[in-house]
Hints:
Structural class: alpha/beta
Strand order of the largest sheet: 3-2-1-4-14-15-16-17
Oligomer: single chain
Order of helices and strands: EEEHEEHEHEEEHEHHHEEHHHEHHEEEE
Radius of gyration: 21 Å
Helix content: 25-40%
Number of helices: 12
Shape: globular
CATH class of the largest domain: Alpha Beta
Amino acid sequence: MANSRYSFNDILYVSDGRIRRADIVVEGEYITRISDKEEISSTDVTSSSLSERKGEEPLSLLLPGIIDDHVHTREPGLTHKGDLTTESHAAAAGGVTTIMDMPNVVPQTTTLETLAERQKLGAAHSFVNYSFYFGATNTNAHLLQQLDAETVPAVKLFMGSSTGGMLVDRGEALRAVFEQSPLLIMAHCEDSDIIADNMRKAQALYGDDPAVVHHAEIRSREACIASSRLAVQLAKETGARLHIAHVTTADELSLASGATPALDAQITLEACVPHLLFTDEDYATLGTRIKCNPAVKTCADRDALRAALSDGRITVVATDHAPHLLAEKEGGCKRAVSGMPMVQFSLPAMLGLVEEGVLSLPRLVELMAHHPASLFGICDRGFIREGMKADLALIRCQPWTLTADCIVSRCGWSPLEGRRFLWQVEQTYCNGHLIYNKGAFAEGNAHAQQLRFSGR
């Protein structure tokens, strides 16, 4: 479909907390007209109501393109695992139209020069909209005031180890980041001293490379809670805005700015899909495929995170998409690398939680499109509204099973292989262009754009 003028006629779409039937017109890059016809109850698009549609055409829904604020494409320097081209194609296949890429690559994105180089790589290779975080270190706080707030989403701060040598662990350096950053600070919170002590104890009991079932004991709840509390303390003392990445414990949920924080709240929380799906009991069957940092925790922690999706404590749901080769996942807590590919299947997985009654469909759209756009101040995206960029995902109620042959990420595996899903991404539109259509991708990447930020 050319990027000119087309329409979705009599389509059900989800935006701004409602499901409505409408005719939607797209011209060029933008949604230009929405002619609403009726509002639909959320219960009318669940599996129970779908069972009554026998003999009818499978139900389709139009969603805003998913905005994933936590992705590792691995380019530059780690491209044997994945790169901007492969991982952004995987995103498009999953209805994700925007990725925000992390700085722990080689070389790290910790200088103005490396940031500019990555932005050039994004323009050359990304298949969906893109932006790049600037990484804080123990010695670069003086650069934070020079960042372009219109092109950089946030400063990424690693307060935990095993993050590509970007650990900021000196007290004065941490405070300097919070004092100097004019942008939102997105923090990975784990206490390295606690983790190191836990590893020594585990190695004394289980050997040099403890089995992965001990991962959550080593990268423990206490390590996450202590570090997150320190980050919140520094934010409150300095006035910095803080977004805590991939919270994993029930205790951390109390750190958000109130029970139902507004999107301009000082302290917000991100949950990632792996921590909403898996628990430490799953190591028995999935092993190191679900080894990630922070570790997946107990069933009680997972259930607390799920509850927080709907009551306002969790602001954003992302993936922490982190592809590795399976050969790199061999070993235990010390040797196997942490991280898993997730961007291609995050939307079907979260739609599965909708079917389970964990959250509503409009709430899913808020957490994965509306809220990332509003929190980071992304211009003209994240909603299905007149005047917005036409970043869209068309999903269809069509049961399917995830098999290896449908995986687009370079690493070629998923911890979700074998799972059956009810909803499938059928088409993805980026800036008005149909870029993914039932397994086929558009040519080139001229449609992809670097994100612009404002209003923060």
